[in-house]
Amino acid sequence: MAKPDLQPARGTHDLIGEEFRRHHHVVDTARRISSLYGFEEWATPIFEDTRVFSRSLGETSDVVSKEMYTFTDRGGESVTLRPEGTAGACRALVTNGLTQANLPRKVFYAGPMFRYERPQKGRYRQFHQIGAEVMGAAEPLSDAEVIACGWHIQQALGITEGTVLEINTLGDAESRDAYRAALVAYFQASVDKLSDESRGRLEKNPLRIVDSKDPGDRALVADAPTIHAHLTVHAARHYAEVKRALERFGVPFRENPRIVRGLDYYSHTAFEFVTGRLGAQGTVMGGGRYDGLVEEMGGPATPSVGWAAGVERLSMLLEATPAAPRPVAVIPVGEAAEGAALDAVQALRRAGITAEIAYKGNLKRRMERANRLNARAAVIIGDQELAEGLAQLRDLDSGTQDRVPLAELAARLG
Fold first, then answer.
1. Do 146 and 307 touch, CB atoms closer than 8 A?
2. CA dist., res. 109 & res. 132, Å (int)
3. What is the per-residue pLDDT for 59?
4. Domain that holds residue 398
5. Fewer C-beta neighbours within 10 Å, C or N terminus of the chain?
6. Region for 301 from its dihedrals, namely left if φ exceeds 0, alpha if ψ lies in -120 to 50, beta otherwise
7. What confidence score (pLDDT) does residue 359 get?
8. Are residues 391 and 313 in the same domain?
9. Which residues of this UniProt protein bind L-histidine (predicted)?
10. 252 is a domain residue
């Protein structure tokens, strides 16, 4: 058969069958677990005013400068398909007037994101994320609780084997000022060995050099100073309390002083859940504290913390694909039984039982369809059964068959 002319756009893919069930299981599990922690689900628009992301991610960041899907609409406005979910949640907090009361807000979200980048394993141009944000809480306990929620989701998915939580602190503003000065002094001594990109960052944002993927930069970063020697008393106490709470929550972790967030509104806790099971794309969930982002959106000072995780990556870690529900096949034999079969299939559905009815064919063809559907049982209604108000109920695994009153089918199959 010839290959169709129309294919999914590069970097996108269809979610069908087993792949969709894996995807749905990840999102549904995350939704269920986050609700146990008091998170409410929000849904923000898939596209936003471009300034939502240029303010939140920084005009010079790779996402803004290279990866965003930005276009001018018919009204002359610059809009962008969302590359991540946190900025939209913060914007929604401000524009819906939610910054003054009922804080903190604990928000869960799930949905598609868009970045123009080279497609690779577990990463697409249209990809999907889940995320959790606690907006309006400065306490270290909120950092630990949002991390514990992410760990609980991974436990519920059965994917924690080989996954490690790595944490670091970015300190407060005073800590970061001292750390920036130390980094600039260190990298200036070897500026000729830095990549062109990192040389450009040296004066503007030296923290981002610490996260560089360039091999030459990484060699220099290995001996670079860490922030821990520059923490204020307040910042050191915040970090210690986060670690203490994580231990009480039963979340194992290791410290990694090279985890950074390069933007000014990030502070204190930064973290990543990493695994060796996905090759180079080892981060499955990451986040941190972003105390200045709501202000970037025009709101008041609103300390916040959260994480995001790629659904595609999480689904790749699942040991097994969740099974599709096995239906009950309702099979009328003869025209007279059609009406009773329709009543029966709807009664089963109303009782919460997945049920199918073949649209046409004799008994043999309809039974063949039931087998293709991997049905667990067949309800066969013929003229004699109809006259007696019964059905033949056949267990398609064992082959056993009983005569069951039509009114009792749901109870027998529930």
1. yes
2. 7
3. 60
4. 328-413
5. N
6. beta
7. 86
8. no
9. 84-86, 115, 129, 133, 261, 265-266
10. yes
Collect the ranges in the chain with pLDDT lower than 70.
Answer: 1-2, 58-65, 121-122, 262, 264, 280-281
Count of structural domains within the chain? 2
Scan for tokens 């949640």, then name that residue. 89
Tell whether omega for the bond before 104 is within 30 degrees of 0, i.e. cis: yes
Q: How many CA atoms, within 13 angstroms, populate the side-chain half-sphere of residue 239?
A: 23
Known binding residues are 84-86, 115, 129, 133, 261, 265-266
Annotated binding site for L-histidine: 84-86, 115, 129, 133, 261, 265-266
* Final residue belonging to a domain, choices 271, 298, 317: 317
Q: Which amino acid is at 297?
A: M
Distances (CA, A) of 277 to 164, 235, 264, 313: 11, 34, 32, 10
- Rounded to a whole number of angstroms, the CA Rg of the chain reads 28
Asked, for residue 255, whether it belongs to a domain, the answer is: yes
Its pTM stands at 0.90
Cβ–Cβ under 8 Å, residues 157 and 149 = no
Residue carrying structure tokens 């923490």:
231
**Distance in angstroms (rounded) separating the CA atoms of residues 61 and 66:** 8
Closest by CA to 357, choosing from 390, 323, 380, is: 380
H or E segment and range at residue 174? helix 173-188
C-alpha–C-alpha distance, residues 238 and 260, integer Å: 17
